[in-house]
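Consider the following assembly input.
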Amino acid sequence: MNLLAPIDPSLVFKVAAVLGGLTVVAYILKMRRRRFEVPFSTLWHRVLQEKEATSLWKHLKRIISLLVQLAILALLLFAVFDPQLGGQDEDARNVVVIIDASASMKAQDEGESGNVMRISMAKLEARELLRSMSGSDAAMLVRMDGQTTPLSRFTSDKAMLRHAVDSLLVSDTPADLERALRAAADALRERQNPTIVIIGDGAYPTEVVERIRIDESVGRELEPAEREALERDKAKKAAATAPGDDESAASSNPASARPDRSDRDASPANQAEPGAAAQATDIGAIDLHGIDVRYIPVGKKSDNVGIVAFNARRYLADKTNYSVLIEVQNFGESAATRRLVVYNGESAVDVKNVTLEPGQTLREIYPKLSGGVGNRLRAELQPASADEAPDVFPLDDKAFALLPARKRQKVLLVTQDNLYLEGAMLVYDNIQVDKLLPEEYDAQVVGGALDDYNAVVFDDHTPENLPAPNVHALYFHPSGEHSPFTIRSTVSAPRATEVSDNHPVMRWVTMSDAHFDESHVFAVDRARGEVSLARYVRDTIVAAKRDGPRKIVAFGFPLAGTDLTLRVAFPLLLVNTLDWFAGDDADLLTTYSTGRRFQVPMDGIYGISEVEVETPFGDKVRAPVTEGMATFYGNWIGVHQLTARDSGEIVAQLELAANLANPNESNIAPRETLMVGDRALEAPPTFAASPSRSLWMYLALLVVLILCVEWITYNRRITV
Amino acid sequence: MALLAQSPVADDRSGLFDEAFLKKLEYLHVVSRKIFAGSLRAERRTRKVGSGIEFADHRKYSWGDDFRYIDWNVYGRVDKLLLRLFEEEEDLHIYILVDCSRSMLIGEPLKLHYAMQVGAALAYVGLANLDRVGLIPFSETLHGRLPPARGKNRIFKFFEFLRNVEIGKRTQLEACMRKFVHQEKRRGLVVLISDFYDPSGFEEGLNILRYNKFEPYVLQVFDWKEANPTLHGDLTIVDCETGETKEVTISRSLLDAYKREHEKYCAELNEFCTARALPYFRTHTRLPFDELILEIFRSGGFLR
């Protein structure tokens, strides 16, 4: 017998001493008895005389009663130590059971009917494994998906472990085998007979599997056929990573072999020189030496056609239309035909049948799509005909994308009649432009009459007062002390030598061939979030910054002294600037991939520390907002809604679409054997059952039994 | 619980002999007249052999006897001098002895009150029958004495006397009876109303009465709950008369044993009286006192 002693023994002994002492003192101290008068005590004396004959038994009963109380106390305190029957079994194992709960485990190819989810089979295997464990074995359950989550501590309590298995949920994220193995190895450190059992479909990146290091005694030697298959895989991988072999070539060749996971998940180490790669692999090795690693395969079929990319964008010039990119890949062993449907909302905007050869990737671009209401796009792969069986892995048959919202802005133009500027603004049909003379502006801005505008464009006018803080401002040739940026100097005939084309304002803009008579040079303070958008050598002539909720862009040159207004770049600059003001800077809204931490820019939202995220299933979680980015882990595919509240009121709402978009996970081909190096991992042995059990529950039951007996005998005046 | 009275008992006797009680007494008297109707010199006869007119017995002649009572007919037949004896007719003395020890202050109603009502009722019947009725309360000694009187108009003196009876301590039958027989020279009927809870026993006290030619009438009064206690837990029982204490833990078996012991004690008293032809009545305080009186009448002996 061994004691787990979850509580400090010294504390238990102190408590035992105090409680034992109190029990004895309570028995030593006689209770003050109630006094009652009787008319004739002689009768009682006669009765009691008969009882006196058994006085020894009476005393004994008191001692027995005390001993029973002390025994109850001792049993309870003993139970606190969590004693285990069977002692320290030398063969006792410490097992970490890693259950694959990644998206591919939602494939429905198990069971006799062939439509049972893999995760159900994995749970069945896990329960079977737990059942076969001996009483002295301890197990810890770990869920492996994009994250690694321990579901239990090391325990021999099979009921608790079974409950943890039953409550396991599958997410829509890819499996992160490396993280799970490292966590398991850490958990098993310095534990006796460490064992890792992986229950899954083996759909793990080869690159990760190759970095696993195990003992020679673990697993079995590969069969010739397996060794041949392994060599073939390696050769295929070498071919895939050969110079000049790009992905587009592979995807455009339908006859190319079925892609290996490592092709898409190639690490930098694999793409470097062989020597360096070997070194990097050793550095990143997953060291499982001294650990018995086992594998229980789940899954039967590999036929799957899935959407591996889906995105949409509006046209810059015509925001009513949009284009869609879809990538579909056939992961099966045979050619497959699917009907590809693109929905906008609930309206289908395009339907077509696609046929893919094994391993083929089909990239489809749908230009100039329009119609439909709302901004939610959905792509679906459906059976080409009604009599075809549905896909075994429906999770990647759907993908979601969101079109950038079209925001109509109200813009105030403050100018002394600049035809170039007014003409350029007419290009943008998503704005409503009003015009004021500078003196009219100065007269109206004080009363707050201009606070309704979303943006103000100042042409050669630098007012003292600006509208409300949420009104953005665009300056051309600001001057004086009210300039949004400190004017350091003025340069003659500057050229735009450097342009920050990663800033939304300068996207797709070329200013290198524009001429300027002169320009102010702004002093840009990066510490205050001010950025330089265009420079002449090192002098900033275009700058942007945020001033609280207000965004400001300033051009140092006057529009009258430049030929920029005659170029295509000028209306583009205006559109970019107004889009940036509207928070519509991401024309191409990239959809998010599950299994990663989503970082969502909360543009235009200030002073909010967290947002509420509603998942596609309606669950609501809180996500912190730091530096304007809401951060949360993406577990589910579908449209997520983020709501920012200030004092209970909704201040902003935005949506994002998340897709699986992971070819490794869509490649659901199960692996019967998981080959690590030149060894194949084996299924775990059936452990010999032993009667070892945790005793605390039996001790507690014994105490309850004793208390019941004591209670009954007390009430029947047997032990009093 | 009255049996386990811990505080001084409310011994309020003001309502003991009220109008309703008097009506019951009158009713009892009427009933008693139906059972016995006498028209002699006295309403009742004693066992005393004396100068009456009704022949009672013969005895041998001895020197000094009155020749007039020699039965010459017997002398003629059997040649022996025998003297004729006649029952002497005189007033019957009835002594009502009421136990007023502390043990009588137990019960619901109090045994003492019940005993006083029974005693008063019997006294009334006796007074109404022109017997001489006296009242003597006792405990460890005699607590005063109401001398024998006759005539039912004296009943109010009895009431007054009973209302003022002092409560004694412990029951000592033997000492009290010894004192009583020395105090009362006229023999007669002695109605002894008590719970007979005397640690030294009841036998000697009753024998003293018998040996001194008194006719004891034994009325044992007990409270229902003292015979059938419903106690529980750990107790220190205190004898209300002696103050003696004993620690007991009440169990069902102990209660059963006590009930058996109480029944046995009562049976001993009954057996003692029956063996000596002493009328014995046992009653608990829940029984209305008039029913007890009627039972006494029906059994005979009290009314002659």
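Residues 1-8, 36-46 of chain B have pLDDT under 50 and may be disordered. Ask yourself how this observation constrains the way the partners meet.
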